[in-house]
Each structure stands twice: as structure tokens, then as C-alpha cells.
Amino acid sequence: MRLASKVAIVTGAGAGIGRASALRFAAEGAHVVAADIDDASVQEMVSMSSTQASGSIRACQVDVASAASVEALITTTLEQHGRLDVLFSNAGIQLDGNAIDLPEEDWDRMFAVNVKGAFLCAKYGIPAMIASGGGSFLITASVNSFYAESDIAGYSATKGAVMQLTRAMAIDHGPGGVRVNCICPGWTETAMSKPYLEENPKGREFAAKIAPSGRIGQPEDIASVALFLASDESGFVNGAAWNVDGGWTAGMTKAIALV
Ligand SMILES: NC(=O)c1ccc[n+]([C@@H]2O[C@H](COP(=O)([O-])OP(=O)(O)OC[C@H]3O[C@@H](n4cnc5c(N)ncnc54)[C@H](O)[C@@H]3O)[C@@H](O)[C@H]2O)c1
After folding, report:
1. What pLDDT does residue 258 have?
2. Residue with the nearest Cα to atom 31 of ligand 1?
């Protein structure tokens, strides 16, 4: 029970990495508030979740790009559970395009969800964590925080931004007892990666081959690292960016050789 009695919020919990993390946190004893803009998806996840989980999961609809919505999420969590120990700011969207063809509204929406969303979760969540005696704030960044790929200029910019936000907040809030870290997944099999993996004839093969581990990541691979960073086991980890990519970024030369 690595998160016994801890209260955790996971955003983007209706699907993919967020769903796997919310389920894992609850299995390890946390009381989880599973938040997503798609209310039906979190309601479905809560109804599917095992009653044997030693913690609990409640669904909450949130739009992380809206200050009022994020503030309401924190208020509701405190009303229901009285404290906040872990906030996993994971919700994100990817809209493709280079700087010339990416529509301005797509740029704005990605920054609103991926960057402002993390900022708003911190703005309203970190004070609650400090009042609870400290905690762990996590952001899902990406291998694209470090490395660019073609046709995702705006998305890469948002992921670079949240990695730097992670570092800035670790410095500001470490003394208050709040650790801030980000996870940088490589190709992970979710709805977000599905278009590339399934519509591109060689997408799946390429995504597996570029990782020295030889496979595409699963949401549970990311959830395992999130669990460690959420737990007290990572008590001296602060301001770090954790690549969880099967060695993709260590094996850049392999990727280049495959192109
Ligand atoms: N899948 C990958 O290969 C991959 C790689 C690197 C990073 N990531 C990052 O992982 C995170 C999770 O993505 P995923 O792959 O699980 O994708 P996903 O599409 O399966 O899940 C994203 C979830 O976020 C929710 N969401 C979207 N906008 C929201 C908003 N405004 N407010 C609240 N919830 C919102 C969606 O409804 C969805 O349930 C994202 O930040 C993504 O950028 C994914």
C-alpha cells in the first residue's frame, strides 16, 4: 500500500495514461479524484474499477484550461477528503502541424490545456498540498520536451514549457514540502498515439523499433513511474524529468539509422 490514505487527483483520468494511473493509485491505497473533461469516460472508469482496491475512486468533471473549473476540482476534493497529497497534472492534447500550417486556434488550445492546465492545477492545488503538510505534484511532459519531431511544433513547444515549469516550481515549492517532477513518455499506446500507430502503415513497427526495449509503451508503464514519484519512496526526487521511453532517447542513433 504505497499510497495508503493519501488523497490524489489525476487529470485526464478518463483514458490512457491518466486512467491507468488513477487505477494504480487506488490499488495502492489512495483516495483518488479522477478528473476529466469527458465526464462519461471517468464515470465508466469508476464503475469498472475493482471494489477490491484498498483506496477509492470518485469521478469529477473538469476542464483544466478553466480556472473556475480547476478551483472547483480542488474545493470538491477538500470537501470530500479534507486534504490533498498528490496532484498528477496529466491531461493533454496533441494537434499536429508545423509553424506554417498549424491553425492559430490549435496553438492556443494546446497551450491552454497542456501548459495553462498544469499552471492552474499548481495555482489551486499546491496551496492545498502545503496546507496538508506537503506532497507530490506531477506533470506528464514528453520525450518531445527534449527532442523535436516533424509536424508537431506547437505540441513540442508545450511539452518543453511544462518541463521548465516543473523545474521552476520545484525550486519555488520544495521549501514548502511540495516536490514537483515530470514524466516524459515515449510512444505509449493510447487514443492520442492511435492515429500514428494505426493509420501510418509502418507506424507501429517504427515506434517499437526505435526503442531499444523493442516495444511500444503501455499506459501501465507510465503509471508505475507515476506511482513511484507520487509515493514517499521518491522523497528526495525533486525538479526531475523522467524519461519513460524504453530507451528511445538514449538510442537516438538507432532512430536515425532507421529513417
Ligand atoms: N500517448 C503517448 O504516446 C504520449 C507520449 C508522450 C506524452 N503523452 C502525454 O500523456 C498525457 C496523457 O495522454 P494519453 O496518451 O493518455 O492520451 P489520451 O487521449 O488517451 O488521454 C488524454 C485524456 O485527457 C483528457 N482531456 C483532454 N483535454 C482535457 C481538458 N481540457 N481537461 C481535462 N481533461 C482533458 C481527455 O478527455 C482524455 O481522457 C498527455 O499530456 C500527453 O501529451 C502521451
Report:
1. 63
2. 63
